[in-house]
C-alpha cells in the first residue's frame, strides 16, 4: 500500500454554475502549497470551462453523466460535454486503467445537505476517506450510492483507486458563500491529508462502522395532465435532508395548496430535497435508507 | 379617482429562472377568480417565454432593463429581450400613454430580503399600495428606488398610474419554495385588494409615514489584477439585508480569507446582499439609507 497513490485530481466546475469549486481551484492555482502533499502529486482542473464561462450547469449535456465506459468510447456522442468527457478521459484516464489514482470532485447543492460525502464503492480506501473527513467534520453525512466504477457515469469514477464527491449546501447556483466555500475547502484538506497518511503507511485510527445513508430512488415532482410541474416540496419537508420521512408525512403541496403525503410503507430519509438542477427532469427529492457503513465494505 | 383603474397587469417570469412568478401565473390562469376584482380587469402575462423555456434569467439581455422610452423606440435594438420589450410595449403600452394602468411584477432573489416592495415614485397610489401591503404583512420592507417613469427601464414602469415590484427571498434560481410562493401570492392579493378599495372610493386607513429604505448605490465585488472576482460577501454580512452597516464593519472576505471592511463614513443598510444574478456584473450588494416614506410623496 505504501506509495500506491501517485496522482490525485481535485476538480471544480464540473457544473459551471457551482462557483465554489471553480473559485477554490482558482485560489489553489495561486496557492499551490495548500494542496501539496509530500507523497503524491495533486492536479487541479476546471472540469467544464465552457459551462463555467456561461455560468450554467452545462452547455449541451450534464458533464457529470458522461463517464460511463461505453459512452466514453462511443464516437457518435459529439455534444459539447460528451466531447469534454472524452478529453478528460485522455487527460485523467483512460477509464479502463486511469493515470489518476483518486478524484476529488467538488459540488454544491441548493438543498440543505450540509457537507455530504458521496462515494460509490465498498473499497476501504474510499470509505476510509469519508470516515476520516467525518471524524474531523462530525456534521458531515455519509452518502453511499453504489455503482460499478466502469459503468458509473460520474467524473469521480475516473479515479483508478477511488473517487469522492464533496457536495455542500444549501447555496444557490451562480454565487459564492463563505461558509460553503470554507466547508468544501476544509473537506478537501482532510481528504488530501488522509491520502498522505495512507500513502506513507501511517496508522489511521478509524471506527469499523459509522452511520450513513444509502441511495434508494428519486421521487418525481407531481405533474398535471399536460405533464407540467403541479406541486412543490411541502414546507414541512423543505430543508429536512437526512431526517425521517414516515408513511403519511407531507411530501408535496400543490400550486393550489393541497398536501400530498408520502405513500410508502416504511420510514425513509430524504436527500437532494428541492435541488434546482433537477427541475428540468421534474425530480423532487431522493429517498435514502439509514444504514451502517462498514470500513471493510459490507454496508448494511 | 373613482373607477380610474381599468386594466391591471400581473406579470411573472420577467426573469425566466425565477419560477415563483411563472408558477403563480400558471396557477391563476386556471384559477382566475383569485385575481378577479369587480371594478377592473386583471391580466396575467408571462413576461419572457423564451427565457422561461430555458430556465434562464434571459436569453440575450436582461428584459427588466429594456423599458426606457428611448430604447423602446430604437429600431436598432434587436436582441431577443429587446424585441420582447417592444412587443410588451405594444401589448401593455405604449409607454407614453399606456393602456395598462398598473403593473405588478413578481420577482425572487437569492438574498435574504424577505418580502420587499420596490416602488420608484412618490405617487400616493403607488406608495399607498406598498403601505397597505405592509400593514397586512408587517415584515415586508419598503424599498424606494426613485426614477422617472419614462426613463425607468424596468417592466413595472409600463403602468400608466404606477407599478410595484414584489421581490421575495431568499430562494435559489430555478426552483419553487412554498413559503416564497405563498408570500408572493399573498402580497399580490393585497395589492389587488388595495386597487379595488381605491377604485371604488372606499376609505383606506393608512399611516402618513412608514419606515423604509432608499437605494443609494451598488458596491462591486473586489477583483484581482486580472479583473476576476477575488472576494465574497463576509459571513457576518451574509443574510443581513436591511441591517445596519457601520464604518469599519466587515464587508467582504477574500478567497484567501482576508477581511475587507466597509470604508464609508456613515451608517448604511445593505440590500441585495449576494444576489446570484448580479455576479456577471461583479456586484456584491446595494447600499440603502433608512428613511421615512411619506404617503404624500416627500420621502425623507
Features of the shown structure:
homodimer, Aminopeptidase, N-terminal domain of TfIIb, alpha/beta, 3-stranded antiparallel beta sheet, 300 residues, globular, 26% strand, 6 helices, 10-stranded mixed beta sheet
According to CATH, the fold-level topology of the largest domain in chain A is: Aminopeptidase
How many extended strands of chain A?
A: 13
What Rg of chain A, in angstroms, do the CA atoms define?
19 Å
Secondary-structure element series of chain A: EHEHHHEEHEEHEEEEEEE
CATH architecture of the largest domain in chain A: 3-Layer(aba) Sandwich
What top-tier CATH class of the largest domain in chain A fits best?
Answer: Alpha Beta
Distance N to C terminus of chain A: 27 Å
Which protein chains make the most extensive interface, counting residues with beta carbons within 8 Å of the other chain's beta carbons? A-B, 36 and 36 residues
Q: What is the oligomer described by this structure?
A: homodimer
- How many H/I helical runs of chain A? 6
Q: Based on CA inertia axes, which overall geometry of chain A fits?
A: globular
Q: State the low-pLDDT regions of chain A, or none.
A: none
Total domain count of chain A: 2
CATH superfamily of the largest domain in chain A: Zn peptidases
- Residues in helices of chain A, as a percent range: 10-25%
DSSP strand content of chain A: 25-35%
Which structural class do you get from the secondary structure elements of chain A? alpha/beta
Across the major sheet of chain A, the strand order is 2-1-3-6-4-5-7-13-12-9
Largest sheet of chain A: 10 strands, mixed
Amino acid at each position: 500500500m505504501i506509495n500506491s497513490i501517485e496522482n490525485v485530481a481535485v476538480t471544480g466546475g464540473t457544473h459551471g454554475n457551482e462557483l465554489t469549486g471553480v473559485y477554490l481551484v482558482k485560489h489553489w492555482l495561486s496557492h499551490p502549497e495548500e494542496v501539496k502533499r509530500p507523497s503524491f502529486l495533486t492536479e487541479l482542473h476546471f472540469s467544464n470551462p465552457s459551462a463555467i464561462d456561461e455560468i450554467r450547469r452545462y452547455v449541451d449535456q450534464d458533464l457529470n453523466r458522461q463517464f460511463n465506459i461505453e459512452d466514453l468510447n462511443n464516437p457518435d456522442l459529439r455534444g459539447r460535454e460528451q466531447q469534454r468527457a472524452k478529453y478528460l478521459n485522455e487527460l485523467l484516464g483512460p477509464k479502463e486503467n486511469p493515470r489518476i489514482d483518486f478524484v476529488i470532485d467538488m459540488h454544491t447543492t441548493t438543498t440543505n445537505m450540509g457537507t455530504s460525502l458521496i462515494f460509490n464503492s465498498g473499497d476501504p480506501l474510499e470509505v476510509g476517506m469519508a470516515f476520516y473527513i467525518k471524524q474531523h467534520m462530525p456534521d458531515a453525512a455519509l452518502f453511499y450510492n453504489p455503482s460499478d466504477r466502469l459503468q458509473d457515469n460520474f467524473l469521480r469514477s475516473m479515479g483508478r483507486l477511488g473517487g469522492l464527491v464533496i457536495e455542500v449546501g444549501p447555496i444557490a447556483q451562480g454565487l459564492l458563500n463563505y461558509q460553503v466555500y470554507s466547508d468544501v475547502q476544509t473537506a478537501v484538506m482532510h481528504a488530501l491529508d488522509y491520502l498522505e497518511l495512507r500513502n506513507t503507511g501511517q496508522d489511521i485510527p478509524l471506527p469499523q462502522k459509522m452511520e450513513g445513508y444509502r441511495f434508494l430512488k428519486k421521487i418525481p415532482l407531481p405533474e398535471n395532465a399536460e405533464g407540467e410541474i403541479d406541486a412543490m416540496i411541502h414546507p414541512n419537508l423543505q430543508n429536512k435532508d437526512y431526517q425521517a420521512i414516515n408513511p403519511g408525512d407531507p411530501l408535496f403541496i400543490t400550486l393550489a395548496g393541497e398536501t400530498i403525503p408520502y405513500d410508502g410503507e416504511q420510514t425513509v430519509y430524504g436527500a437532494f430535497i428541492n435541488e434546482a438542477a433537477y427541475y428540468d427532469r421534474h425530480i423532487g427529492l431522493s429517498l435514502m435508507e439509514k444504514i451502517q457503513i462498514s470500513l471493510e465494505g459490507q454496508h448494511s
